Structure formats: C-alpha cells, structure tokens
Structure prediction request, 272 residues.
Amino acid sequence: MKQRVIFGVVGAAAVLLALFVLPPLVLELALTFLACVAVFELIGSTRLVRDRVMILLAIGHAALYGLTLTTWANSFESVARVQDLLMICFILLLFLRLLMKHETDRFTDLSGAAFAGICLTYLFLSLVRIFRMPNGPWLVLLPLVAAWGSDTCALFSGMLFGRHKLAPVVSPKKTVEGAVGGVIGATVLMLVVVLLYNKFTPIDIPIWAAILLGAVGAVIGQMGDLTFSVIKRQTGIKDYGNIFPGHGGVLDRFDSVVFVAPVVELILWLVA
Prediction:
C-alpha cells in the first residue's frame, strides 16, 4: 500500500507538470508510449496473439497513429488521410503475414492484432484528442475524474454497504451497492469539478453535461473495468504488466479510462 501511495503522489505530480508546465508534445508522446504498452499488454502479455511480427505491427501502428495526433502532425495538410493510409497498410501487412505463416498462425491472431492496433489505440488516444481541444489541459482531466472517481467511490461504498455481488465470477469483491455508490460519487465529484472549472477557468460546461459526464462516465468505466477483468481471467494472468509499481500494467490502471475517454470526448464535442 505504501508503494501504491508514493507512486500515486509522484504520478499525480508528473501529470500536472506535463499538463501545465512542459511543452504539449511531452504529454502527447507519453500517452502514445502508454498506448503502445497497452497494445502489447492486451495481445502480448495475454498471449492472445502468438506471432511476434503481428504484435510488433500492432505496436507500430499505435505509435504512428499517436504521432499523427501530436503537435508535430500540424505539418500535415490532412492528418485524417495519413491515418487512413496507416490503417490500410497495417491491415494489408497483417494479411500478408497470415499468408506467409498460414501453417502456424490463425485468423484469431490477425483479429487480435487488428483489434489492439486499431480499436484499443483509438480508444486510448482519445486522451490526446481531448488534450488537443481548446482548454485541453483542463478537459483531459475529466475522463480521469469520471473513471478513477467512480473506482474510488465504488471501493468505499462497497466496503461500507456492500451486500450483493455484482459479478462474482469476474470480480468477486465488487458489489451492486459499490457500483451504485461509484456512479453517485463520480457524478457529485464531476459536478464539483465542472463548477470550479466554470468559475476559475475559461471553460463553460452546462450542469446537465456535467451530470451526464459523471453518471455515464462512471457506468462506462465500470463496464471497462469488468471487461478487462474478463480478459485476464480467460487468459489466466493476474496483472497485465508491472510498469506502474504497486498498480500493475497500463491496462490495470487505465482499464476504465480506455472506455470513458472516448465517451467524454463525444460529450465535449456535443456541448462545444
């Protein structure tokens, strides 16, 4: 627990430094790196994809896609066209690899690599897309508030009031009462954060949008948490990795954020 707390404090300080002090490219590259690690954890650590070349292709696509979202990509006239080209090349290379190794590789290897390289990457790097919005350094904290606020409130609500198991096979410690407490707590926390934003920053988010961000974000975040727990149980691993001391891998820490970030991005576009 001591290790988790120390790393949490140091990590929070590093995030604030990257958001408000260092050049934007630092955070963008850091998130791209974490996305690449998440891709490896999903298909490499779990051995869902056994072909190393396919794993490297998925990681390579994640890295290149992340670079197209950074401030460096401003030099391109049409980033979307570059992203389309990268995805097409990635898919063609996966099929080429399957043709070359058809005696040992299976279509499930290709499917897993494609999902991780395209879908997981797109979901995770919603954080960069939010960061690139006007007032992005403030807005990018919102999916973290929804996801981690829900996790924290669900933990304490479950400890105090938990009686009925939410998903006994997937996550034996989670309770219905904890899940409800997580939604309520995240919604209240989001309201407080948005009210502070509206008062002390140039941001102006409607109250109804704050409630939506908190409630929907909490529900989606819990779904993400359980989904990645299912994958761990089905593949027989305890943690996705150990990149974060005391917290496990990227997907152990960002499992709920991966689902919440694109939902927050969508809501922010709707209220912009």
In short: The mean pLDDT is 91. Residues 207-235 form the longest helix (29 residues).
